[in-house]
Every structure is written in structure tokens, then in C-alpha cells.
Design brief:
The complex is a heterodimer of chains A (423) and B (217). Chain A is an alpha+beta fold and 423 residues long. In chain A, 70% of the residues lie in helices and 9% in strands. The longest helix of chain A is centred in the first third of the chain and has 47 residues, at 103-149. Classes of the chains: A alpha+beta (423), B alpha/beta (217). Chain B: The modification 4-aspartylphosphate is found at residue 52.
């Protein structure tokens, strides 16, 4: 029964893939070739990136379908755009040349050729095998007769349908095709995707280059991480030395003086006791603030969701926190995410002029996604020098990314994504 | 009055035991972990529990969870929670059941033995003892966003702060060195300005204040 269902499902998918592959590939191929040819005329510079982006999303849709329908994973190797890509005309030219220099673009175009010729043939077999049976039965039900009488020498595969007998044979053969479909249909769809994989997956050379880029990126983020933690340690050491430590020394000295004076001058001793108590209290307050700066207690006790909720309660702005996390991430990831949220919120309060803030956190597809939105005046920029680049560096250590949408006039939305697993 | 005490650091536990005994409390049990605390609360039925938020074996908020569970099993069981840090999030969870008899204080508050013991007694009697830090956070938040608190005079704000911590009029009067009558006048002014129903019950009074401070978030 399951086989039967799979075969029918594969048939429907095959039909869809045939149309999708033919229409999509032909249209995109024609547009791409025209657009690239028009680069000489200048227009192509502006259309090419758009067409190629469309092509990429078409290819990515295919990657998605391959994964969900046949379990075929097709990796991609598009080069990322540099973060300092300029806007306007120069940016457009740059984008165009970057995309044309990317070997993955040319592989996409080659794949379009295969995807409009061989691939649909493979895919169309799946629905055909199912539908042919229906046609055979229709013939056998008597439809052969009018066709024959009208002078139509109808062929069903290799059977010449001229009588009820031959029509019955056609129905039998159609049923045979259907039985074949039950066994081969999923494989046909699978084959269609295997072709796509053969064309689309990066070559060894592209993989090598991608690896090299990844190594560069890791080296960079590792440097950042080391720098950050060294700076953090210096700050902690300084805070301890100037704050709590000094106060505890003062308490010790006061206690010494008290010991000496307690009998000779009890009034003065009592005064010193009050001072010592104050000093020890303040040392504790400083230690507490320091701990909160290193690893917030609620984060340790309850995890990211409640820690951000507790943080929101301390803010001077009404803040709505929406958390959907079925488990806890690893401690370093939680900590990075917490401080990233904390810094985003601080930015929102300091600079945005907002009177409401929303935090949304959820986990899906192996990604922790966090959005911090305010209704302020907007105009925040990511990039060198801004507080946002600090957050970016923090997240970079975990391969996380940050995106800022902040049109002038608001609202500002800071989105963060960190790949991680929850436990 | 019989106390169950839960604190994992030996020095602090020892100090608390000595302090409470000095003020004539009977220490029914002094334990150092969550499971022991749960067992002691169930078997010994103390008059009040003094509990550290963070306890072994998990070293997370095990003490708080134990206290909340015990209060679910026995509503109104007086619990005073101590913590190295105070968070509104935890304060809300403690107050959520509306039964009173809860306290949530920074550990530093034990420095002032008399006030600390007063807080324990207040909680044991079914009142509340909220840490001034929690109250200040609430007040500063509200005043930033909201008008009615701005209408309070500085003196009334002081009174409101102490009231929200759970102090009675007499205690507030003593602390601010004025007569109890003056405090009564201040409180009725505050209730009027904040639009709160007047109530004689100390505990209800605090819950009303906190609910007011909490609303509109």
C-alpha cells in the first residue's frame, strides 16, 4: 500500500518537476544569455545580477526539493559578497563582476542546459507510467472503437488497437506499466535529482577554494575571540583590583583599628564598625555587578529565555519578550547570544528614542534566531565603529550573523542567527 | 519558632544558624542541598523556611524551585528566599500565588541582624519582605513611563518604597522617625493618588502595591 502511494506521489512530483524544469530552465537560460550579452551595451550590468540572483534562488529551490523529496543533498558554493559592497551604480557593477567571476554561476548555467533536455525526460516517465494505464483502460472500455472507425490506427506502445481483443491487451499492458511504476517511480524522481546534483554540486576545485575562504574566516574570528577575551580579562582584573579588593583591604584595616580601640574608645570603634559594614556591603555590590558582566546569574540558573526576560524587567522601557526555545544551547553560545541581545537593547534605549521594544527568540532548522525590534527613529548602521560591529564579532566566533534593518524614520530591527543545537 | 534553613556554603549556614539562635529561633534543620530541603520541608513542617536560591546538586535555581513546590503542596508555607542577586523575575514567581508569607532578600541583608530577623518574623507571620533593590527597580521603571508616581511627594515615595517591602505603618514610622499617624496620612494619600483600594491587611497592602507597580507592562 505504501509502495502504491509512493508511486502515485512520485508520479505527481515527476509531472511537476517536468514542467518546473522545462519552463524554469528555458526562461532563465534565455534571460541569462541575453542579459550577459547586453553587458556590452551597458544594460546587462544592471539586469545580470538580478537574473543571476533569480537563477540562484531557482537552483536553491531545486536543492530544497531534492532534499525533502528524495533525500539528495546538493551543496552550494556561491561566494559570499564582501560586507563592504558599495551601493548605487558602482556597487551594481561590482556585484555583476563578482557574480560573473564566480565559477558557481557558470555551473548553474550549464545545469540549466541539462535541466531543459535530459532531466525532464527522466522525470516525465514517472507520471507517464501511471497515466498510460488509465489510457489503456479507457481504450478497453470501448473508446477504441470510434477512434478505429474514424480511420485512426491507434497504437498503444507496440500494440495496434483494432479490436476489443487488442484493446484488452492494451489495458493489460497499461496495468503492466503501472506495476513497473510502483517499483521504479521513486527511483525516477531520485534520478532526476541525481542529475541535478551531478551538475550543481561544487567541483573539487571550488570546494578547495571554499575551504580556503573558510579557513581565512576562522582565523579572523579566532583572532577576534582571543582579543576580546584578553580585553575582558584585563577589565575584570582592573575592576577587582580597584573595587572589591580595595574595599576588603579597607575592611581589614578598620577591623585592626577596631581591635585596638574597642576597649579604649568604644564610641569610635562602633563608628568604624558601621564603616566596615558599609565597605563590605559595597564590595559585595561591586562583585555582583562584575559577575553579572561575566556570566549573568539568571543565565546560569535558567538559560537564555529567562535571562533575557529578567533583563527586560530591568530596562526602563516596556519590553515584550517572546521566547520559544525547547531546550538550552551550549553555555558559550547562550552567553554570546545573551550579550548580543543585551547590547542591542542598550543601543535601542540609548540611540533610538523608542518607547517600546520587542524581543523574539526561537530555534528552527538548527538556527537560533533572535530579533530585537524597536519603534524608534531608525537610521542605525552596521559596520566599522558602531556598537553593532562589536555584536557582529561576538556572534562571528560561533559562525553567527547579524543583520540590521533600520530605515530613517524607523523602525529598527536587529536580527541575529547562530547555528547551534539545543539539548 | 521552628526554622528550616538551606544554604550550601558552610560558613554562611553556620553564621545564619548562630544568628537565628541568638534571636531565639529553633533550628529544626540546616541542610545544604535541594533534595534534603524538600525532605525537611515535608517532614518537619517548620514555621518558616529560609532558603538560598542556588543549591546543589544542580547549582541552578534549585532552592527557589523547592520553595515554590513546597508552597504548592502547602499553600501559604512561609518562605524567605535569599540570593546573591535579586531579580524581579524570581520575585514575581514567589508572589504569583497571592498567598503571602514570602520574602526575597539579598544575602547582604543579613549584615543588619535586627532588620533581617524582623524580615524572617514578618514572613513567618504571613507578611512579605521584598528586597529594596527589587522595589527600587520597579519604582524607577514606573516613574520613567508613568505619571501617577510622579504625583507623589518625595516623602510619599519613601513611604511607598518601605510599604512595598512589606513594612507595617509602625515600622515605617520608626524608620523615618515620624509618628504613626503621619504615616497613616501618607499612606492614604498614596492610595488615593495611585487609585488603590484601601485595606487593613498588611499583606494585601503589599500585594496591591506590587500589582499596581506591575501593571501596564
Amino acid at each position: 500500500m505504501k509502495r502504491l502511494k509512493d508511486a502515485v506521489v512520485a508520479g505527481v512530483r515527476g509531472l511537476f518537476l517536468t514542467i518546473f524544469a522545462l519552463v524554469g530552465s528555458i526562461v532563465l537560460f534565455v534571460f541569462s544569455v541575453l542579459s550577459i550579452a547586453f553587458i556590452l551595451l551597458g544594460i546587462g550590468v544592471f539586469t545580470t545580477p538580478a537574473v543571476l540572483m533569480l537563477l540562484r534562488s531557482y537552483a536553491n529551490t531545486y536543492r530544497g526539493l531534492a532534499g525533502s523529496w528524495s533525500g539528495v543533498t546538493i551543496p552550494h558554493a556561491y561566494r559570499p559578497f564582501p560586507p563592504d559592497l558599495r551601493g548605487g551604480v558602482t556597487g551594481q557593477v561590482e556585484r555583476c563582476s563578482l557574480m560573473l567571476k564566480d565559477p558557481a554561476t557558470w555551473r548553474d548555467l550549464q545545469w540549466l542546459l541539462v535541466n531543459m533536455t535530459v532531466a525532464p525526460v527522466v522525470a516525465v516517465l514517472a507520471p507517464s507510467l501511471v497515466l498510460y494505464m488509465v489510457y489503456g483502460w479507457v481504450l478497453a472500455a470501448g473508446v477504441w472503437k470510434p477512434i478505429y472507425e474514424a480511420g485512426g490506427g491507434e497504437w498503444f506502445a507496440f500494440i495496434h488497437v483494432t479490436s476489443q481483443d487488442t484493446a484488452d491487451q492494451a489495458a493489460l499492458l497499461g496495468t503492466g506499466f503501472f506495476i513497473l511504476a510502483v517499483f521504479v517511480n521513486p527511483a525516477l524522481v531520485h534520478g532526476h535529482f541525481l542529475l541535478a546534483r551531478a551538475c550543481l554540486s561544487p567541483t573539487a576545485r571550488m570546494r578547495e577554494r571554499a575551504l580556503a575562504r573558510r579557513v581565512d574566516r576562522l582565523t579572523e574570528t579566532r583572532h577576534d575571540a582571543v582579543d576580546n577575551s584578553a580585553a575582558e580579562l584585563r577589565r575584570i582584573e582592573r575592576d577587582l583590583h580597584d573595587g572589591a579588593q580595595a574595599r576588603l583591604v579597607a575592611v581589614g584595616m578598620d577591623l585592626g583599628t577596631i581591635e585596638a580601640m574597642i576597649e579604649t574608645n568604644p564610641a569610635k570603634a562602633k563608628e568604624l564598625i558601621v564603616k566596615a559594614r558599609q565597605n563590605s556591603g559595597e564590595a559585595l555590590t561591586e562583585l555582583r555587578d562584575l559577575v553579572r558582566g561575566i556570566h549573568p546569574p539568571v543565565l546560569a540558573e535558567r538559560g537564555l529565555g529567562d535571562a533575557v526576560k529578567a533583563l527586560a524587567l530591568r530596562l526602563p522601557l516596556p519590553t515584550e519578550v517572546d521566547v520559544e526555545l525547547p531546550g538550552r544551547a551550549e553555555a558559550p553560545v547562550e552567553s554570546a547570544a545573551y550579550f548580543a541581545v543585551s547590547e542591542s537593547l542598550t543601543n535601542a534605549i540609548k540611540h533610538s528614542g523608542a518607547d517600546r521594544v520587542w524581543v523574539d527568540m526561537h530555534h528552527a532548522d538548527g538556527m537560533l534566531r533572535i530579533a530585537v525590534t524597536d519603534n524608534g527613529k531608525g537610521g542605525a548602521v552596521a559596520g566599522a565603529g558602531s556598537g553593532l560591529s562589536g555584536i557582529e564579532r561576538r556572534l562571528g566566533t560561533f559562525d553567527g550573523v547579524l543583520a540590521v534593518s533600520s530605515p530613517a524614520g524607523g523602525p529598527t530591527m536587529v536580527t541575529m542567527e547562530i547555528p547551534c543545537v539545543l539539548s | 519558632m521552628r526554622v528550616v534553613l538551606a544554604e550550601d556554603l558552610f560558613l554562611l549556614r553556620d553564621g545564619l544558624v548562630r544568628m537565628l539562635e541568638a534571636f531565639d529561633f529553633e533550628i529544626a534543620a540546616a541542610v545544604e542541598s535541594g533534595p534534603e530541603l524538600a525532605k525537611a520541608l515535608e517532614e518537619l513542617q517548620p514555621d518558616v523556611a529560609v532558603v538560598d536560591v542556588r543549591l546543589p546538586p544542580s547549582h541552578t535555581d534549585e532552592g527557589l524551585q523547592c520553595a515554590l513546590a513546597a508552597r504548592r503542596a502547602r499553600p501559604g508555607l512561609p518562605v524567605l528566599v535569599l540570593s546573591q542577586h535579586v531579580e524581579q523575575l524570581y520575585a514575581r514567581e514567589l508572589l504569583a500565588d497571592g498567598n503571602g508569607g514570602v520574602g526575597y532578600l539579598l544575602k547582604d541583608r543579613v549584615f543588619d541582624a535586627a532588620q533581617f530577623v524582623d524580615a524572617v518574623r514578618r514572613v513567618a507571620a504571613g507578611g512579605t519582605a521584598m528586597d529594596p533593590q527589587v522595589i527600587q527597580q520597579l519604582l524607577s521603571r514606573r516613574s520613567a513611563a508613568d505619571e501617577p508616581l510622579g504625583a507623589l511627594t518625595p516623602r510619599e515615595r519613601e513611604v511607598l518604597e518601605l510599604m512595598a517591602q512589606g513594612r507595617s505603618n509602625a515600622a515605617i514610622a520608626a524608620q523615618l522617625v515620624v509618628t504613626e499617624r503621619a504615616i497613616a496620612k501618607h499612606t492614604s494619600n498614596i492610595f488615593g493618588k495611585l487609585d488603590l483600594a484601601v485595606s487593613d491587611d498588611d499583606n494585601r497592602r503589599v500585594l496591591a502595591v506590587l500589582a499596581y507597580l506591575d501593571q501596564g507592562r
